[in-house]
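hiii so um. not sure if this is the right channel but i have a protein structure encoded as tokens and i wanna go backwards to a sequence. like what aa goes where. can anyone help
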């Protein structure tokens, strides 16, 4: 019998007793859990690529990157040619903040795990916004933020070569609301490593504000840390869950297979 339990007070749900992964009722419960709890965990599912893709297609259209729908998450360049860029994922971020419509959800299946470190942390920007004092919410409403790939990469590589900088800047920057008014009535914060500056604000004041908000949003009360086991399947609402990988040895065999579901709600 399928059962669920909360992973933390503000986010996350673990599903146990999964029989038929493609049962309509289970798909519906997973979709609801994704919306209201942000992070979904099924331990020991051991999905192969075909099954992972099939499950994701029940929830939406899967992103194809360079003709591939499965992305290998590894710091080994022989497994992942863009391994160097993954160092930026050690910082809190949302995926797709440089796109008009961010991706809806991301899934990971663990094939190999790190001996030490390598967990993944999540933090709910829905809960962070809802728990702000009213005066703070009024302060942030209406502000807009410029997000860039360069801002995120500079956190991992603060002194890039001209070639690296040129590559980063080929990804266009995107302006978003700081407080995203969602079509379901909820509000979330669009912050993280890609947040370069608040539009029209003094640079130092802008940096302080963004850092303060990120610190608030990633406090333990709004956070869940997942320690990977081989076969784990995790899916999260990318539009409202900040996430980051915890450091691990670059020579580790840690390998996750990622799929991404196309977004359906543009920044407004």
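sure thing!! here u go:
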């Amino acid at each position: 019998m399928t059962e669920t339990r909360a992973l933390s007070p503000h986010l996350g749900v673990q599903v146990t007793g999964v029989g038929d992964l493609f049962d309509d009722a289970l798909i519906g419960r997973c979709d609801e859990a994704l919306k209201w709890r942000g992070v979904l965990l099924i331990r020991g599912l051991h999905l192969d690529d075909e099954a992972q893709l099939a499950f994701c297609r029940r929830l939406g259209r899967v992103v194809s990157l360079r003709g591939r729908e499965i992305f290998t998450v590894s710091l080994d360049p022989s497994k992942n040619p863009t391994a160097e860029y993954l160092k930026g994922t050690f910082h809190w971020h949302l995926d797709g903040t440089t796109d008009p419509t961010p991706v809806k959800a991301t899934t990971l299946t663990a094939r190999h795990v790190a001996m030490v470190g390598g967990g993944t942390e999540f933090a709910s920007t829905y809960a962070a916004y809802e728990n702000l004092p009213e005066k703070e919410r009024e302060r942030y409403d209406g502000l807009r933020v410029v997000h860039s790939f360069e801002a995120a990469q500079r956190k991992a590589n603060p002194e890039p070569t001209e070639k690296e900088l040129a590559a980063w800047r080929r990804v266009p920057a995107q302006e978003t609301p700081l407080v995203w008014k969602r079509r379901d009535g909820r509000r979330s914060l669009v912050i993280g490593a890609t947040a370069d500056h608040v539009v029209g604000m003094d640079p130092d004041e802008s940096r302080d504000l963004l850092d303060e908000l990120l610190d608030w949003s990633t406090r333990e009360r709004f956070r869940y840390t997942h320690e990977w086991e081989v076969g784990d399947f995790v899916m999260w609402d990318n539009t409202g869950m900040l996430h980051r990988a915890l450091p691990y040895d670059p020579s580790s065999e840690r390998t996750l297979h990622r799929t991404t579901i196309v977004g359906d709600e543009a920044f407004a």
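oh and The helical segments are 24-37, 49-57, 125-130, 134-140, 149-156, 162-169, 203-217.
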